[in-house]
Amino acid sequence: MGGKKISERSIKKKSGPTHPHSRRATQLARVAHRKDKLNQAKSVRNRSSNAKVDRLSTLVLMLPDDIDALPDLASVHSFVAENFLTRHEDELQELKSERRPGRPPHKRELELKEIIAKEQQEYSEGFEIPDLTSVTNVKLLRDWQGDPQALPLFRMVRISAKYPEQCKLMHPGNHKLLQIEFKQQNEATAADSTSEMDTTDSTNVQERPDFQRVGEFAQMG
């Protein structure tokens, strides 16, 4: 998921026709697909004023359709940093380019800057998101219609850009399938701990009690 983020504007700057099977055509298709995902998330936001609904629906809609879940915590950070936190950049750049020199920023431009700054700060200090490494959790989110009453069903975790190798379980999820999964994983962890000595250095964890070590809950890392 690494690499420079490609926008529709940067692709269209290149001259010449676009061959249907060229790299440029693939990039344009990928950008169009991303815009479609964002439009789907926007339609959900229009039906709800719940900020948590907005975040969860946007995150799950931006996940690639061909994966069941993200493989590990590092992938979660890459996905959040490169996709979710940058989702307003194209619109912001477009508003800036349309503004005449010397004119004050448009209201929407100021709103986007505020959203971006707020989310970047939250991501640095502690960002609450659904557990995107759980296949069960991702499937439940994809089947979800955006009802705020269903939010307690999902497993929620907290990650931080400051401590990318750590995370914290905020809510295990009330859905029966998640409870079964969580119980099985806890039992497996307990069985492993009886047969192997834990040599993990927990010094930093004790200094930062708000975050748990990776591996202290299901599938994160």
UniProtKB/TrEMBL annotation:
Residue stretches of biased makeup (Basic residues): 11-24
Biased composition, class Polar residues, residue ranges: 40-49
GO CC terms of this entry: nucleus
UniProt cross-references to InterPro entries, sorted A to Z: Tma16 (IPR021346), Tma16_sf (IPR038356)
Extent of the signal sequence: none
Listed transmembrane segments: none
Segments of this protein annotated with the region Disordered: 1-49, 187-207
Compositional bias annotation for Basic and acidic residues: 1-10
Bias (Low complexity) ranges: 188-203
Pfam families: Tma16
Protein name per the record: Translation machinery-associated protein 16
